[in-house]
Amino acid sequence: MNEHADEPIKARSWMTPMRARSKDERHRVSTPLELFFDLVFVIAVSQDASALHHGIAEGHAAAAIFSFSVLFFAIWWAWVNFTWFASAYDTDDVPYRLLVFVQLSGALIIAAGVQQGFAGQFSTVAIGYLVMRLAGVVQWLRAAHSNPEHRTTAYRYAIGISIVQALWLARLALPETWQLVGLVTLILAELAVPVWAERANTAFWHAEHIAERYGLFTIIVLGESLLSGLLAIQSAMQTGDLTGELTTTIIGGLLMVFSMWWLYFDLPAHGLLTSLRTAFVWGYGHLLVFASAAAVGAGLAVVVDYTTHHSEIGPVGAGAAVAIPAALYLLSLWVLHERPRATSLAEASLAPVTVLLILLTPFSGQPVLLTGLLLSTLLAIKLIGRQRSGV
């Protein structure tokens, strides 16, 4: 019997002081609103990965990779800004929810502008950012009003975000020759705002909550690879090719995705967030984890296109579309998760050696299958070694 069954259900507060949540709060997990917010980024990542797939398959790899990288940064940074703020100041009152809905709408506009972004038109993405950032600034101003101890930090966030957003809009008016310089400068400015703001007083983000949120975004980007696996299965069924290259692509693709998931969630990550410096390295470094995982899905789709003769590139190019992002995923995961925990040189060398072997697979004729086997072998070695050491 529920011991709380007779307790009255409290109505949601209209407005509460936006106090910082405790770093030591127990059972801090993602809220339904955060999960709802993530749905928009499922759409945005899918749009970006799909455009990358088509760009590579049509023989425009360099341009497609550049556009994918810029747009993925925009998607990731929008998610990061919301996630870290929510970890510290999620009051879940009515104004907070309404402002999150505004941010969610802005993120949806960003997702809608991905295809235009690949054509070099970023006005829709800029509008989406404007909507998101205005709501985010209001959230930081609320936090500043309610938290004297962290008021300087909150004001710095509000000021920094506002200035950089104004510069993004001003960049649209720059001549073509200055666009790339402006882009790089503003990306660096975006990354610098939290560093500057947190120097005043660290916000009360929750390590376990942040690790869970990043894990959920990893699942989102790995979902792109699962969709590509589904595409391969559908193509095999339609063509009747159940014993040829499509079959090895399906097997290898599934081994890749399953191993990538297991390697990421092998051990809890929150223990790595021991200081502000490590949190910045870990949080920013995940841009490579997320982008490479999404690119693996695009690469698998390119291999399917090549196998079914719907691609403008050759076998080595198709294999590289899978091998390079898979190697980048493993390397960035090694830097962020594995290297800090390694207890011996042999253990620390496993992932880098596997990365080098993966980069050779495009010349093998079976890049997807071999990459999947290499990742699953690495995982097996790690599990067996841990079993033997009693960890």
Describe the protein.
The protein is mainly α. It folds into 2 domains: 32-198, no CATH class; 207-389, I/LWEQ domain, CATH 1.20.1410. Helix content is 75%, strand content 0%. It contains 13 helices and no strands. It has helices spanning 32-57, 61-89, 94-112, 114-118, 123-146, 151-171, 176-198, 207-239, 245-264, 276-307, 315-338, 345-360, 367-389. α3 (94-112) packs antiparallel against α5 and α9 (245-264) packs parallel to α11 (315-338). The protein is globular and about 65 Å long. The chain starts with 31 loop residues before the first helix and ends with a helix. Mean pLDDT is 86; it is low at 1-11.
Question: In a nutshell, what does this entry contain?
Answer:
75% of the residues lie in helices and 0% in strands. With 391 residues, it is mostly helical.
**Count of individual beta strands:** 0
Task: State the domain count.
Answer: 2
CATH class of the largest domain: Mainly Alpha
Helix and strand composition category: mainly alpha
Strand content: under 5%
CATH architecture of the largest domain: Up-down Bundle
Distance between the termini: 39 Å
The helix/strand series, from N terminus to C terminus, equals HHHHHHHHHHHHH
Average pLDDT metric: 86
- Classify the oligomer: single chain
Q: Roughly what percent helix?
A: over 70%
Write a concise keyword list for the protein shown above:
391 residues, mainly alpha, I/LWEQ domain, 75% helix, disordered N terminus
